[in-house]
Amino acid sequence: MVRTVNMSNRQTTADVILIGAGIMSATLGSLLKELVPDWEITVYEKLAKAGEESSNEWNNAGTGHASLCELNYTVQKPDGSVDISKAVKVNEEFQVSRQFWSYLVNSKLIRNPRDFIASVPHMSFVHGEKDVAFLKKRFEAMSGNPLFQGMEFSDDPAKLAEWIPLMLKDRAANEPIAATRIESGTDVNFGALTRILFDQLKSQNVGIKFKHSVEDIKRTSEGLWELKIRNMDQGTVERQRAKFVFIGGGGGSLHLLQKSGIPEGKGIGGFPVSGLFMVCQNPDIVAKHHAKVYGKAPVGAPPMSVPHLDTRVIDNKESLLFGPFAGFTPKFLKTGSMFDLITSVKPHNLVTMMAAGVKNMSLTTYLIKQVMLSKEQRMEALREFIPNAKSEDWDLLVAGQRVQIIKDTAAGKGTLQFGTEVISAADGSIAALLGASPGASTAVSVMLEVIQKCFPQHVKAWEPKLKEMIPSYGVQLLKKPELIREIHASTAKALGLDDKPPFIEHTADEIKLG
């Protein structure tokens, strides 16, 4: 039997309620606690710990997305030139994250940045004459930009053997190959960062309630938000009011946004895609590769399917991760329900969802093929990167769920979106984050957008503190090359990225080219 507990007589209205204990709520809570320390903030999370869903270190690739290697952020236009505008935008957003993390380190709010971030070179790798030509044009477009200072290009097998020895061993000698490399790339343990931030928030009197599931959100006659919350341990249901609510529940955000009833949430649907990776923890193999290496997605594959071979640093131990391979389940979270997809279909988004189904038959076909892959077929994809990869060295890992936004746009009804988006009420009293990549890497920029949308009356007064935390706040970095150099240097120092980990360089003589 579920017992209802009425909290209205003995609990004050919270200034802020954050739903979901992932990197987004952790970031927003940390920003607000610096801006307005006296606000009452409460966090509700249905799982037993913070950072256990999308933010968990084994549920994402851990790439500090800065457009240094992601080829899908740079599109070749019909005239042959390469458009780097999205790459510039994502890089600037990652610089904002680095600045805020550095502020927390310098303020002693984060003790040891090595617990969540490591220096790992970012590389793009291609083969075949057409893709080698594309990569060279991309390099030429990016290398002159101060945001991408230090990027190198090579199509020389001897140089590539130094950079990526594991990938060059036993590779066909007559195959055109090329890569770009930039040392300032990072591997980020977003699960560890999330836990660090919530531990700090707890010490600052933020109430964090685990195993509490938010089941409903309604607006009261006073203009507040009342949440129906189930205490999963005690079996009780309580109600809590707040002036502002942020829904940061990953794939679970869509259902709660719909329950809020705000008109801005109408007509939006979601499509879940699960991810799988191959993981290698054999120290002899791991020691031969130190980089995040991104390739090109197969023709017809969606953007989130870009293959990459990554060095991961988790709990000070390195491993290799390759993927992603797509999977499908109707769940919106790994811990969600098999009915998540069907219950997200409402009268207001039915036509949008149906249109998406018709327009994305190729995606459906792709997902079916991916789900049917055997381990050996996945190994064949890996051998595009590591020609002599052995099946016994690699295990399959089920990663997190991503719910792609479906909405009507200028491109037509039922358009599938592959980015992140903040949906907020007109009065700024509630906001939800929907979507996927680049997600966590740009969490600070996304949460600044929430602050600007939802607290416009405070932003002017908060500006000095915002500029203290994020020196580039309000500045377009691309127009300030000197500031870019200062930020690169200061954040690298604060985050301990100047100290490069040991890595054995290999020469071409040591690498057997087939």
Automatic annotation (TrEMBL):
SUPFAM superfamilies assigned: FAD/NAD(P)-binding domain (SSF51905)
Domain of life from the UniProt record: Bacteria
Keyword field contains Oxidoreductase: yes
One function term, GO molecular function aspect: (S)-2-hydroxyglutarate dehydrogenase activity
Pathway in which the depicted protein is active: Carbohydrate metabolism; tricarboxylic acid cycle; oxaloacetate from (S)-malate (quinone route): step 1/1
Family the entry assigns: Belongs to the MQO family.
Statement: the UniProt record of this protein carries the keyword Cytoplasm: no
Catalysed reactions listed for this entry: (S)-malate + a quinone = a quinol + oxaloacetate
GO biological process: tricarboxylic acid cycle
Top-level EC class: oxidoreductase
Cofactor(s) for this UniProt protein: FAD
Pfam families attached to this UniProt entry: Mqo
Keywords: FAD, Flavoprotein, Oxidoreductase, Tricarboxylic acid cycle
Name of encoding gene: mqo
Enzyme Commission numbers on file: 1.1.5.4
UniProt protein name: Probable malate:quinone oxidoreductase
